[in-house]
Amino acid sequence: MSANSGSLRINRVDLINRRISAGDLRWKDGVIVAWDEQGAADPALPWLIPGLVDAHVHIESSLLPPAGFARLALRHGTVAAVSDPHEIANVLGVDGVRWMLDNLEGVPFHVLFGAPSCVPATACESAGARLDLAEVEALLDTPGIGYLSEVMNFPGVLAGDTEVLAKVAAARRRGLPVDGHAPGLRGAAAAAYAAAGIGTDHECSELAEAEEKLACGMSILIREGSAARNFAALHPLLSSHPGRVMLCTDDCHPDDLWQGHIDRLVARAVALGHDLFAVLEAASLTPQRHYGLKLGALQVGDPMNAALVTDLEDFAVQATWVDGVEAFAHGEVCLPHLPVLPINRFCAQPVDSEDLVIPAAGVRVRCRVIEAADGQLLTRAAIEEMAVRDGRILADPARDLLLLAVLNRYRPAPPALALIRGFGLKSGALASSVAHDSHNVVAVGCDAVSLAAAIDAVVAARGGLALACADGTVELLPLPIAGLMSDAPGEEVAARYAALNALARTRLGSPLRAPLMSLSFMALLVIPSLKLSDRGLFDGDRFTFAELVCRC
Q1: Residue 113 has pLDDT above 80, yes or no
Q2: Residues linked to residue 368 through DSSP beta bridges, in sequence order
Q3: First to last CA, the chain
Q4: Most exposed: 154, 168, 455, 486, by fewest CB within 10 Å?
Q5: Is the pLDDT of residue 144 over 80?
């Protein structure tokens, strides 16, 4: 029997006919050729479900290349991902997207990549590339790319920006879906955004917002990632709008991916009382239909993309097949870790602690402060009175008012500085070259010396995640692939990343569940309210720069 042929005696979960029965399933050359039904479900047998799909993920956020992401995702019954490669596109442009496509060659895992629509995300930050209309159209015609990635420039859509709308039109002419990104957009503005041809949104954090967008004709992706977690608010949609809802992670870091993926969302949804078939539809069939994936639903004639689970409560995965090939079984992924040739663009220069000083006159000044929240990409804006000593504004860890810096990684430039609350560090600093979406170096710290040490560790490695302790020691996870991804095995990256986060909590005092992931979003200007780009403090509500020191 060939490697992509086989047979199983199982309970088949049939989503098409919404029934479960026991029987013998056979497949040959990757295609299901027979289903011999034996009767009602047999509790002594395992259960076969269609392979799961992550309907929106930036693979780069796993800190792994696509092949490395696949090795971890397959452990959890995931056979496919719809992935927006705009992280690497912001660093390396079209070359980065093609690198992602090439990395998956020969790997038994399906990834439908999108053509990034907003590179750079805004004109208010420095990125490593710009994708114009011609480049987006060329990508849309590239095998392996099947949709227009999230249109983050929703103000441009609403204002009738010709280039943004031309990219949307290019996808629609080809009959390809267009993904959305419109956090907090409601009412007439949401209706206008949907009417422009944008079919999904994964940024809803409130049920009422999601219901409004569904009423406008959009499909909703329920996101449960490492930083943004919206499942608790949005899961009622699984029952109220079957066929219009999908499940996604958006940004899933490696230690979370090691522990679970879409399978964990399926288990949570079923435990909450949602209909099994509606849940699995959202986790498999709906993304297939929306994005034109041909993964099948365990019917005769379908490709054999499936997960074998112990039960329909915990959904612990015993085995995963991709096009008939057993890719995970007996607790082991059946794919070797393959070495890769890194690709990168990194020109940042080291900084000195004196470069990280915020100058000010007087004794005390009123400053705008970014307020971060655990599990949210949205921030708030606050005004706080800060002490000034020797002509510089002092961080105040006792009040959780820390220094935030963003350093241009594409050319030598002085860092932009701001103040932030929410990270809770008592000492030391964190720095990262994963800084959505332009991926400059972002850092947070209690003092300029620690902040410089963390930044300089990232600069010396030409990309990575760093933690600087007050005693001068620095821990580093290098990210040689575009300053975004590691070339080490996924298991090792997951363990090292988890260790860094644990140190951020235990040695530096952060209360955040995922401090490094949260840090990576503090430069994401397209999500309000207040963020920091390499060019300065940015008001995402008004979409304009703001002064750090209030003049009122």
Answers
A1: yes
A2: 383
A3: 78
A4: 168
A5: yes
Q: Is the pLDDT of residue 9 over 70?
A: yes
**Helix 490-506 vs helix 66-73: crossing angle, to nearest 10:** 80
Q: How far apart are CA 486 and CA 73, in angstroms?
A: 16
Kindly report the number of other CB atoms within 10 A of residue 43's CB atom.
9
Q: What is the pLDDT of residue 217?
A: 97
> What pLDDT is recorded for position 2?
61
Output the CA–CA distances (angstroms, integers) from residue 98 to 138, 147, 234, 536, in the order listed.
Answer: 12, 15, 35, 32
Helix 162-173 with 133-140: angle, nearest 10 deg: 20
Please tell me the distance from the alpha carbon of residue 456 to that of residue 466, in angstroms, as a whole number: 9
- Rounded Cα distance, 126 and 93, in Å: 13
- Angle CA(139)–CA(127)–CA(64) in degrees, nearest 5? 70
Q: Using an 8 Å Cβ cutoff, are 454 and 470 in contact?
A: no
Cβ atoms of 305 and 319 closer than 8 Å = no
CA neighbor of 47 nearest in space, from 314, 284, 319, 308: 308
Instruction: Please count the CA atoms within 13 angstroms of the CA of 236 that sit on its side-chain side.
Output: 8
Strand partners, 415: none
Q: Strand 200-201's sheet: what is its strand order?
A: 200-201, 219-223, 245-248
Distances in Å between the Cα of 341 and the Cα atoms of 220, 347, 486 are 37, 19, 11
Sheet with 325-329: list strands edge to edge: 31-40, 19-28, 6-14, 47-50, 306-309, 317-322, 325-329, 332-333
* pLDDT band at residue 228 using 50, 70 and 90 as cut-offs: confident
pLDDT of amino acid 1: 42
Backbone φ and ψ for 17, nearest 5 degrees, come out as: -100, 0
Tell me the longest C-alpha to C-alpha distance in the chain.
Answer: 83
Q: Find out whether 342 and 65 touch, Cβ atoms under 8 Å.
A: no
Between helix 66-73 and helix 94-103 the angle, nearest 10°, is 40
User: pLDDT exceeding 70 applies to what percent of the chain?
Assistant: 99
- Look at the alpha carbons of 105, 111, 112, 113 in this order and tell me if their dihedral is positive or negative: negative
Give the chain's mean pLDDT.
Answer: 96
Q: Round to whole Å and give the CA distance between 416 and 414.
A: 7
> Under 8 Å CB-to-CB from 89, ≥6 apart: which residues?
96, 97, 116, 119, 129, 131
Predicted confidence (pLDDT) per residue in 35-81, tens digit = 999 999 999 999 999 999 999 999 999 999 999 999 999 999 999 99
Write down the pLDDT at residue 453.
Answer: 98
> In this structure, are strands 145-151 and 110-115 parallel, antiparallel, or unpaired?
parallel
* CA pair distance 82, 78, nearest whole angstrom: 11
Which of 30, 13, 54, 47 lies closest to 286 in space, CA to CA? 54
Beta strands in 152-255 (DSSP E): 178-180, 200-201, 219-223, 245-248
Spell out the domains of the chain, with CATH numbers in brackets: 51-294 (3.20.20.140), 353-545 (no CATH)
pLDDT at residue number 336: 87
Query: Tens digits of per-residue pLDDT, 350-389?
Result: 999 999 999 998 899 999 999 999 877 889 999 999 999 9
Radius of gyration of the chain from its Cα atoms, rounded to whole angstroms: 24
Question: What mean pLDDT comes out for the span 331-353?
Answer: 93
